[in-house]
Design a protein that fits this description.
Maltose phosphorylase, domain 3, homodimer, Beta-galactosidase, Chain A, domain 5, Glycosyltransferase, alpha+beta
Chain lengths: 720, 720
């Protein structure tokens, strides 16, 4: 399994590269995330807790009624990885040292990041630093560091290892997408030995950080309101480890763990946990080890990012940085959640429960926007409150409601979890459908929806966005059928309303071009000349006024192609094919959510090589910093998108009338690819070769393979 | 002519009322404006110079590419009306005095505001204050104050009269339309006796204020960097006057006047000036003196507000306050400018020259928005740079270009000023048409315009806004015809482009309802239930999120009705009538620009009483503070709108193929109404009775009267 090691052996000399590595090697367990700083040369050694935020004012240049005037921001709560090294009591300035050797490794099998670095100091002493760190999956509040520091000199070494909560968020200017503000997030209240207590100013969330240090050497602890520092001294070599426990008042501040826990126990538990994880989650790509590694890196990151409880969700940047202010978007449900639903339904349910817990805020959001019924989930949030500042490309994206509905319905189809549906899922679906019924209006016998924005933010505030409308159709249909199936009471008049809306909802299309229309006016606009657009003009949003973008047929990501992948049942195949061809030509892929969707669409059209070409470098987006902004955090939606491209794209997995259906497309370059899913409690492994398919199912299951029905139990082999 | 006196004899006790009076009685001459504070009890005694601004940062919650990051703000440059009164060296606190008597008067015949106030002090001394003030129309830099202060006691009176430039703008919270910021606008640089020099921080505009004091009494002058103070002492009575000269570096800082000028000379010049003004401008309403007075108040305010030179324009609040940050909008051209074009074409031309002088900024604005040619005038500005922060209801209102085109064309039709057209007007028109040609696109044989906002801000970013499209048609047509008429060279290909666009421009309409459609999607939206909307829900923009407003058929002011008043030649009469009836039902008149337009539309449909009903209280909007925000400044557009309603509405004035046409409608309540215009250098006076019309023309002129042609010279009488 050494294909589960991610290594970088080039030292990151520049500040930008250090920030990039800090993201790439961040260590998280869904509860907390710690950036992978080189301890002795940190740039932004942030620590984050999922769901923990500061509430900051939003200033609007023109403060219209009902805008968001407060927003959540993820908070860097502490630097828990502080390290200083002294030789003969002189502090080493590692900026002035020469790097002799460097290797940083993410070990995804054991859930560790380790690093070895050798420096030559200005006075020619060789200093070797080995560190290892992990965030315990089993004990979410526990973070472990191990250090081994040695020199080739006989001089006395001194090491200070510390935890410091007098920190702030990272400030970066000149990027409209990175509107960070300097936060002084925490105020120390009181401290006792080795424990820091603090409070986030406006959100009032309290944090407790405790640190314990272990070594054969004698330790000296110093502490104050803002830091705990442990000093070791020795000749030649110092070995020690540090266990940090973090808890917060959103959940409960308590001593959950005994901090004398054995380092090896923690590591053993971690390996066990991941052993189970990989059994279900691992993807294999025969013939492209590099891609296989990248894909599994991405899945590992999803696991690191996803909250272990329903106090929090899964951010667009996971717990790796402060990009997008740590917010949760629709991407989680549409791009990331299927991975959990198909490999670990229990974890998927937690994500849904987070949404359920924030229904009150979604109700308030709907009322703010003038709706008489229903709930509208926030476009971006941590606490559940709407935090989007520019509403045309934020709040107006009502389709987030459908993303959540989709996740609920998909979860139900995969798990048949009736209890969840009766207690939570249908209530959510009903409120979502109520909102959509209130949002739309009947016009000349059609149910229409005006003034919304689809996933493509290069056109905003439109009428009858195809994506939104078709998703709403799906929501109505499923609410009607599942509530009936489970005898869930809904007033008959209301159900009839939903039925009417479902039947009459308008799906705009061009009879002439035989394509679905992104919205009512899209096709009337001129086409942006992408061929004449110079490479450094992308992403367009950073170089063009919104009014200019909105006036053209040009897509950041294509609504219609995404809609036809998610909701193909409502469209004819020729419209799906023509739409793919049409929107392909006018899509910039300025969003990292775009290419993988085109890849899936291409596989559906049996364009295997085109699918691979769209899939292209997606898997390497963060590993190779392709968007040049991984320093702000990983791109979880793209990571999820890669999974979708494998499972729903290349494997062609679909659910057709309660039957699993497979329709594989395998690129020439691959010998085979494999993955596993859990479908209605049955674990099934698929291994797809060019000419055959191998399936292993724990229980008897019926599968449509290239539209032919097979009943499978245990091993199954079929030529394709 | 005592119908040219505006009086208030109720003392404004509350702060809000004091602010209201300060606006109502502000004194301006187009160059400078001074709020009409009660000197001894001022709330915001602001002084403004037309065109003088500070440049302030605009913070956007989501800083997208190309937004405006700087904006102009009108600056309160000084308090020039400072007054303190002492009795026996004890300063009188007028807050603690009882008001015995109060009268404040605007004398529009003589161009003065005077006030008499008697107080009873806590120790029972009666104090009488008489003040008089004027901004000289003839000497734009000169402001005159006269004071007479007396008591019924023998104790010594001391008066301090001062000018103070350490002032700031007014700060008011909680109104999204009044986004004032505290400015510390000016930094004193150096001073010499009785002269203050200062500089506005970021705009770098310099201001000079000189004050001279005159009395039979001996004066004591004290001064420092920020103030000039003159002290008089006497028993029983103090009379003095103060002449303040203000100049600025936008124009030229120089000593323009001898400040020893005789007070009476100034007043005599002022009366002469206004005598000429009223000869041309006065409106009479037989049988409704109150209305007549209000209308003339409104015209007087327009005259006070309009810049005397082309360094500045005419703000939405004139020079009366800081509302809308002192910005100039499209309203000037569409609502206010016809008054000047018809009564004082030279002053109208100055307004056009201001726009001509800011073409460079309009070019930059077009480039910012991605246009390859043409100019786009800013939605709101002082300096000529775009200052609108919320672009969907700001910059997206491209129709401002057409408003300026309309003003040029109307000016040309009324004056036949070929020289202006050849040197300036056609260049402006050509650049405006270039912008619109670049903005639109041909689609299926139609010339369409996408992603603009019409005058009705309750629907934003729409396709084919009827108002915008029809106005662009007019612009193209006039550029083509006037450039041909005047042999103005335009490349043949370009003219052909404009001809195609003119012919093919799409004017959306419903064949079924026989109405013009506000835009492509408007009619598909549900109708807002105005009957069920409670009174305190208006204006809707202060109580509803934009997304909610945009989703309904509901108008702040109706685009279509305005379009059909301005551009009736492009529409059939039944569509005009049906549109009026349709949009009437869904218009809130939340904009002060709405009712008068409906009034005009009603007269066109010969609905005289309905026209009067729409005209309704418009004339009293500021006099009676009907919008409850006159304290922030007068509503110049509404004032202009009242004039339009008289001349283009009730009188039914139109220009038809170079002929003046009159089509009067007189409400039952009126005996007659009269007004004068200058048409192609000929002064014509109209007096319209119920059954007859009297016309007096200085030169021979042909007029269409109720579609019948008459040639008129001198007096003319006709039964109607």
């Amino acid at each position: 399994m050494n294909n589960l090691l991610i290594e970088k052996s080039t030292f990151p000399s520049s500040k930008k590269n250090k920030l990039f590595y800090e993201t790439l090697f961040h260590v998280a367990n869904g509860y907390m995330g710690v950036r992978g700083s080189i301890e002795e040369l940190p740039i932004h050694p942030g620590t984050y807790i999922n769901g923990v935020y500061e509430s900051v004012d939003v200033e609007h240049a023109e403060p219209l009624y009902g805008l968001t005037y407060k927003k959540d921001t993820i908070v860097n709560i502490a630097n828990i990885q502080g390290l200083e090294i002294f030789i003969d009591n002189e502090k080493i300035d590692f900026e002035k040292c020469k790097v002799l050797n460097f290797k940083q490794t993410l070990d995804m099998k054991n859930g560790l990041v380790y690093r070895e670095t050798s420096y030559l100091s200005p006075n020619n002493i060789e200093i070797n630093i080995k560190t290892e760190r992990m965030a315990s999956y089993k004990r979410a509040n526990i973070f472990l560091f191990s250090y081994s520091i040695s020199t080739n000199s006989t001089k006395k070494i001194k090491v200070k290892s510390y935890v410091d909560n007098k920190v702030s968020n990272y400030v970066k200017k000149n990027d409209p997408r990175a509107n960070h503000k300097q936060l002084a997030p925490i105020e120390a209240q009181f401290s006792d030995e080795t424990t820091l207590h603090s409070k986030i100013k406006n959100s009032n969330i309290k944090i407790k950080i405790e640190a314990n240090f272990f070594s054969k050497l004698e330790k000296k602890i110093s502490y104050n309101l803002n830091s705990i520092c442990c000093t070791y001294e020795n000749n030649e070599r110092i070995d020690f480890h540090k266990i940090v426990e973090i808890s917060d008042s959103l959940r409960k501040i308590k001593k959950t763990e005994n901090l004398d826990i054995n380092e090896n126990t923690l590591k053993k538990e971690q390996t066990e946990y991941l052993n189970n994880f990989w059994k279900l989650s691992r993807i294999e790509i025969g013939g492209d080890e590099k891609l296989e590694k990248a894909l599994n890196y991405n899945l590992y990151q999803l696991q690191q990012s996803k909250s272990q409880d329903s106090f929090a969700h899964l951010g667009a940047k996971g717990l790796s940085g402060e990009g997008y202010e740590g917010h949760y978007f629709w991407d989680t449900e549409m791009y990331c959640q299927p991975f959990f639903t198909l490999t670990n339904p229990k974890e998927s349910k937690q994500l849904l429960m987070y949404r359920y817990k924030t229904m009150k805020q979604a109700k308030d959001n709907a009322i703010r926007l003038g709706h008489k019924m229903g709930i509208l989930f926030p476009w971006r949030t941590i606490s559940g409150n709407e935090c989007s500042a520019y509403f045309p490309a934020g709040t107006a994206q009502y389709h987030i409601n459908s993303a959540i509905a989709y996740a609920i319905i998909f979860y139900y189809h995969c798990t048949n979890d009736k209890e969840f549906m009766i207690n939570y899922g249908l209530e959510l679906l009903l409120e979502i459908c109520r909102l959509f019924f209130d949002l739309g209006n009947f016009n000349n016998g059609k149910f229409e929806i005006h003034e919304v924005t689809g996933p493509d933010e290069y056109t905003c505030l439109v009428s009858n966005n195809y994506y939104t409308n078709v998703s709403v159709k799906y929501d109505f249909e499923n609410l009607i059928s599942i509530s009936k199936e489970l005898n869930y009471y809904i007033d008959e008049n209301e159900i009839n309303n939903f039925k009417q809306a479902y039947k009459k909802i308008y799906l705009p299309k061009s009879e002439k071009l035989k394509i679905c229309l992104q919205d009512d006016s899209f096709i009337n606009k001129p086409i942006w000349d992408l061929e004449k657009t110079s490479d450094n003009d992308f992403p367009l949003l950073l170089n063009h006024h919104p009014l200019e973008l909105y006036r053209y047929q040009v897509c950041k990501q294509p609504d219609v192609v995404l809609a036809n992948y998610l909701y193909p049942q409502y469209q004819n195949n020729d419209y799906i094919e023509n739409s793919y061809l049409y929107y392909k030509k006018i899509t910039t892929h300025d969003s990292s959510l775009s290419s993988t969707i085109f890849s899936i669409a291409a596989t559906r059209l049996k364009l295997g090589e085109e699918a691979l070409s769209f899939f292209g470098n997606s898997a390497y987006l963060d590993l190779d910093n392709l968007k040049k902004n991984t320093e702000e955090g990983i791109h979880t939606a793209n990571m999820g998108g890669c999974y979708l491209a494998i499972v729903f794209g290349f494997a062609g997995l679909e659910m057709k009338n309660d039957l699993l259906s497979l329709n594989p497309t395998i690129p020439n370059k691959w010998e085979y690819f494999s993955f596993s899913i859990i479908y209605r409690k049955t674990k099934i492994k698929f291994k797809i070769f060019k000419n055959k398919i191998e399936i292993h199912s724990e229980n008897e299951i019926t599968i449509l393979l290239n539209s032919k029905k097979y009943t499978i139990l245990g091993d199954f082999n079929e030529t394709i």
